[in-house]
Amino acid sequence: MYELYIGNKNYSSWSLRGFLAMKLSGAPFAERMVSLSGTGEPNPGNRSFSPTGRVPCLHDGATVVWDSLAIAEYLAERHAGMWPADPATRAWARSVAAEMHSGFSALRNEMTMCIRERVDVRPWSEGLVRDIDRMTVIWNETLKRFGAASGEGGFLFGKFCAADAFFAPVAFRFRTFGVEPAGAAATYMKNVLAHPYVQEWERAALAETEIVEADEPRIIYRDKIRT
Length: 227
Prior knowledge:
This protein has 227 residues and is α+β, with helices and mostly antiparallel strands.
């Protein structure tokens, strides 16, 4: 059986991606929740199971896969249906997932994932506005090209797939910080948040009691919120 090492569900966006990839695979797996450092740096104690000390990290027997995109691809090689079947559509899906995986630094840094929270910290920085605008373009253009044409599902490529897994944390971030994307992206965001796998994660996140101050919006933005 697969073993998936993950962090706190309220905060760990990368863990969410790994979890959704596992759920999409349809394969049974055991969750191993571990402590994060709370500093943004890897917890040294986690290097016993992850070469980087970061999560998510997948164990398949003696095989170790320690990056969320690598986990998605590893599972897709073994379990059908995680990416769109058409090669051109699949190339687009992988491209937008990879763009999310490697970019959007302002969004990551200025809108931490904190599922339980709702705050308004506007005005946003110029970099954050650019990231929000680019995310909205990705969602709307992809839905126009591939989602609507499929006639099913309400997700980027029709049914929920690995690409949607990479944008699920963004949907949580947008909801927390009151971002309302324009066009079809608004409905897409609601569809992602309502997906059963995402709802399963959210229920577990809301049951957690741990506080990681480095990821708490009301601590990060205490002065702006007070103003």
